[in-house]
Amino acid sequence: MTATARMAMLDLRTIAPYHYQSLFAFGASVLVFGGKPVWLLPGLVLIFSAQIAPFPFRVADKAGLETLYGVLPVRRRSVVYGHYLWAVAVFLATATAGTALALLLAWAESVPFGGRTLLTMLALSWATYSVNIAIQFPVLIRFGYTSGSVLGTTLPLAVIIGTLYKTHLTVASMQDWIALVAVVGLVVFAASAALAVTADRRRMRHRANWRTA
């Protein structure tokens, strides 16, 4: 197992005690979007995944895990990339469970759902999630959860909701852009990871200067 994968597993272990809270958030998301199976997956990603993915930062601030990160035999780059790998795992798990649930609800409600519509919703979900993480993680890594959580949570949601509102996107209008939407999400995600490494380096430099001042 690589150092990045080990750090992603550490993120999973840090939030394990909060599994009931995670299940509650998932159930609340299903209740909100369950009446519209086509939009269930983007709803789950926006409300559930985007809030669960940064949870390790909250636990790290609360439990002082930065000290642990500092003594582990891994590079800081691996710590940062581990957070992003954890975010990918959260998306994949949500997408798998959300797709199965959406198909089941669509079948129960006799709503046509599948094929290109499903692929469109998956691509849209990935793109919105990527934008959310791309803005949120560098802020949390640079300033910590306590100082950056408000900005890191509200800014990406404002960007996503504003974009969807201004562009008046519909399922039909997005079906010809599935591949592009997915690729844009991947590029944004990768760029954010590179930016987060720089943000983490600056944070470590700032802490070192503060200690020696």
Tell me what the structure shows.
This protein has one domain. By secondary structure, the chain is an all-alpha fold. It contains nine helices and no strands. The N and C termini lie far apart (39 Å). The model has no long low-confidence stretch (mean pLDDT 82).
Can you summarize this structure?
With 213 residues, the chain is mostly helical. It has helices spanning 3-15, 19-33, 40-52, 55-63, 65-71, 76-108, 115-167, 171-174, 178-212.
Q: How would the blueprint of this fold be written?
A:
Elements: H1 3-15, H2 19-33, H3 40-52, H4 55-63, H5 65-71, H6 76-108, H7 115-167, H8 171-174, H9 178-212
Helix pairs in contact: 1-4, 1-6, 2-3, 3-6, 3-7, 4-7, 6-7, 6-9, 7-9
